[in-house]
Amino acid sequence: MMNIxxxxxxxxxxxxxxxxxxxxxxGSRAMDHADLPNVERLIRPETYEIFGDLTVERIFETSCHSxxxxxxKGEIVSGICICNYPNVPSVIPxxxxxxxxxxxxxxxxxxxxxxxxxxxxxxSRYTGHFFKKLLSGLFDxxxxxxxxxxxxxxxxxxDDIFEKQxxxxxxxxxxxxxxxxxxxxTDRFLKKPRLKIRRVVEEDNDDVVxxxxxxxxxxxxxxGEFYVSEMIRNPDGCRKLIISEEDDKATGVMFINKNIxxxxxxxxxxxxxxxxxxxxxxxxxxxxxxxxxDSETFFSFFKKKSWDIESEGSSMIISPEESIxxxxxxxxxxQLEMKKLEDPSMISFISDLPRITRQFSMYYESKMESSAxxxxxxxxxxxxxxxxxxxxxxxxxxHIPEQPVYHGQVNAFVLEIFAMKHKMKLRESRNFIEAAFxxxxxxxxxxxxxxxxxxxxxxxxHFMRVPxxxxxxxxxxxxxxxxAALLGMISVHVxxxxxxxxxxxxxxxxxxxxxxxxxxxKATIKKHPDTYSYIFxxxxxxxxxxxxxxxxxxxxxxxxxxxxDYIAIQNIPPNAYARILHFILMPIFSIHTPYxxxxxxxxxxFFVFYYRLEERSLSSLTRTHPLPICLTVMIPVYPRRRxxxxxxxxxxxDRKPKKKTESFSLFLTTPRLSMMLxxxxxxxxxxxxxxxxxxxxxxELALGCNFIKFANLTLISPNGLPFDNDHNDLSHRMIPxxxxxxxxxxxxxxxxxxxxxVYGTVITINRKEKYVTVLHQGNITYDYLILTCGMQYQxxxxxxxxxxxxxxxxxxxxxxxxxxxxxxxxSDLPLETIIFYxxxxxxxxxxxxxxxxxVDGSWITxxxxxxxxxxxxxxxxxxxxxxxxxxxxxxxxxxITIIMGWELINWKLEDTSKGKMIESIVIKSKGKSETISxxxxxxxxxxxxxxxxxxxxxxxxxxFDGQLVIDSDLRTNDPSIFAAGTIxxxxxxYYSDSWEHKYFNRMEIGEKLAKIIRSFIENEHQGKDxxxxxxxxxxxxxxxVFRLPLIVACIVPDGYRFLYVRKxxxxxxxxxxxRFNIYGQVLIxxxxxxxxxxxxxxxxxxxxxxxxxxxxxKNFEVDHMCSLWGKHESMLNNxxxxxxESLIVDxxxxxxxxxxxxxxxxxxxxxxxxxxxxxxxxxxxxxQSLINDCVHALIRSKWDQIQxxxxxxxxxxxxxxxxxxxxxxxxxxxxxxxQDDLPVYCTPDRLNELYEDNKNSRLYNVF
Length: 1263
Fold this sequence. Notes:
This protein is an alpha/beta fold. The chain folds into 6 domains: about 20-190, Gcn5-related N-acetyltransferase (GNAT) (Aminopeptidase), CATH 3.40.630; about 195-300 and about 360-385 and about 400-485, Aminopeptidase; about 490-675, Aminopeptidase; about 680-795 and about 945-1020, FAD/NAD(P)-binding domain (3-Layer(bba) Sandwich), CATH 3.50.50.60; about 800-805 and about 815-940, 3-Layer(bba) Sandwich (FAD/NAD(P)-binding domain), CATH 3.50.50; about 1160-1260, no CATH class. Helix 21 crosses helix 29, helix 36 (about 1165-1175) packs antiparallel against helix 39 (about 1220-1235) and helix 37 (about 1185-1195) packs antiparallel against helix 38 (about 1205-1215). The chain is globular. The relative contact order is 0.06.
């Protein structure tokens, strides 16, 4: 066979080459989906010779790590994908180690420390010098990766660059044959030699001080230039200083100290799973609640139902790091023998590692015998944050306190200072921690305390974050790591029946572990071939277990969640999906979760792992199995807006679940995604107010960026998250729907997982000390305060000292309506006069809800306050007289009394056993006054700012000018306090009264604010001042532009379904718009009384849909109708022309026709964005660009409507051009991609399927 030379093709190229040198390579980063087209262009014929018939997209999705390099011009110059098994088809992935050692003679290669190159491509201009930097970049981001191997097919000769950077592994003597593959290997320590770490001596003072001074000059300012020398000269026996060297030059330094105030940490942090950072002692007293070990993971949030306080009695702060920990029986076994070093200034942790791990394995086994794994699940009640978490428990002759008491010695040391040179920051931090543990061989934990606004450092990837206690607000964040997490070998193997006894012992104290054991039996006995189990071991000791099942509902999940945002489904085999049933792991090993996922993928062949988090799993009382610890590395997936098929019995084609399941939040991960380590941001961000704006802000900040986790995000609201505790369909319908938030959406999105919920009202803002005071709760400190309270309906107060208890209510939330309905239902006295005071859509929506609740219409009186100047009665329904008239008639048909134009001016009270109650109200109109008896008053008159938050804002010195004043970055006059929503207004220097937030979509505003905050924090972590960052928008002090429409949907009296969608911004009065010829055209089908319903569409002067009004007794597709907004009438199948020709009788049925389904698809906007980019692009041929033609036409028309002649010219040039071809291809690709969800369109693939049987027919093959 002919040998193939894989080298630099330039030496064979005889053509003319550019003499300009290639741009310099400036860095490497993780490969992204957007890089794949550029990577694919680097593939050469020689690439296929080495790696076979590869597909870049498939390899990228199934790899563990992928990386690209780019040059100064931003061009991708190389790419590599590595995986944890060789790319040899004949080698079984789960058994590649035996294959390797049988044929070759590698050294120390194992599943844990080695990976194989599955794809390597590069630009030929960089052949000589790209590979070394690429390998170094891989080792930088993978601290446990020591060897990278590449398999070369037989008779392939590599270029010198591979020989220089890699070593060929020799074959065993009996296998030395040219038909065998060649394997090349590179070692981490060949690219980056292991740092020499030793103890600091007095002569190192200048080097150490310079390294620390580069990080912060504070120590040098406070202690002078010789503080290191003084520490060495005057040792205290507790502090140790170690230094790293490379080429005899100091590169890093670490100060560690075993003098640590553990008692303070116990008081402020959830350290029960870690035995209080003390060594186990026989006299330790733990409450029974703490002695029930759950290997579970929770995420920080506060949650409590008001009617569950008495039954549960306490509260919650749940954290991803908490789960299980071991206790030792004897302190003597805690000591590890360490090899005595000849040079006391040197620390050698390489040669002693095997013996240390063996001794620690024996010690660890003794701890497992008496392990006590603790579940930290607390519920915070509404009225107090300081509650007892333990009920009174009586045991024989033993008093168990409410809090654990530890008597053992301190079992941790603290890392005081860690500094490295810039080039070394991403390297060798693990070696430093290992050296630190060797400095204190008798201690097991290393702790780091950092201020909440600290910059994330790669060192923290080896640590677990410990949450603070629910009633504590400590100014520092605590991170821990355990000796066992760094020493020893972690392995994963398939569960076997023989493992059950050991596993049962491991799970003996985990509540509800019987479900885990039952599923383990299913997986091992093989009665259920779709269930698998895998055991995690540390030095042959069980530390965890996972049980997975084949996910056979992939299409069901795909249609309900945005899976495509994270993985390319078309590049993953259909049988490569699995559902996690149980994932139990000791928390000290949680830093190895990414590796565990990659091993499970290798052993099982699954690439995508789902976990369904059901609502009942969030409570210890209702869940049926332990929660998994792996959610920290999994990505929460947003739910999708689904198409509703209502045409000719068209139904979904996906297979529905075999059994009915409740709504769930979905988490997803793959080996590639789990290996992409995320950063934790500890900045304390406090959001005040659960308005649409505030909730959208919290969701975007918590879930918007997958690899940045905000661990200290708190939402303060009297009722918590909307719909969080709402189980009443009626109360859900008594407040209008505004486009996103509803009970179903809340069940499918895990916002509560990352957001702390504090039930209460803010009454004080202390800007100097940076904390807010919550009524009846205490103080909560912040780094950033976000005010999104919004305007609310308030109780009328005619006497300042009056506080009504029951019968005068302001209702702003679903929880408020829940309470009101219960008051009406369980009232001791008959409520025969219920008064609604107001004239808006909220009032009529609530009125219908009360009628559905069973209240007789004759008991209700509706009072319309006097109209303001230049207003009309139909403004309650957005100036639609047709809808307003029918609603008023419907109210009359329900025997509801309507009083028009009267103002509420006072009320009369009576003393009852429950306090002062309303007896009657006084109303006034045109100088006359009347008194009306009142049993229950509901105010919908006008929204204003709440008095408590108003006083807090004013007393804190924030600028308030009728509303809270903000700048263009939504920031108040305090740089740490931001605000958004209806409570705000822009500073007067912007002259932007018409751009106030009350005129725009609150959810879009909240999401924008979250992006601003994230940008501020990222700039701070990079050492940049956000105010000094140049920006085109900042140069002109312009405010942000918001574009999403305003949506209102509700049910009004008589069961009418009402929907109104309009353009955001301050509207132009109809008379003025008509006068200036900018109103557009109105298209209407049906009427309010007709059986087909009333549908009104207004097109603006550009024939774009500007407003939509739907009014019908029958249900209609609200999401579909909202999707019509902003579309051109030609996109709606030439709507305007068809309507003029009387081809459309009913808009409801018209938009249910199959042609419109693509418009309602949630990915349709992606197609529009892609087409817009195509139209705005320029061609390579000068003068043939469509955008230039449009600009010239607008200039000739003086930026008014384009002249008809120019329009015809542009249209004629577009027809048949590359633009039209590209748009048609985009459309076909879109329909092809979505053909499972849009089965009504005939795509090329479906056309081929239809004609598959007719290919050989003579009717289709004439010639």
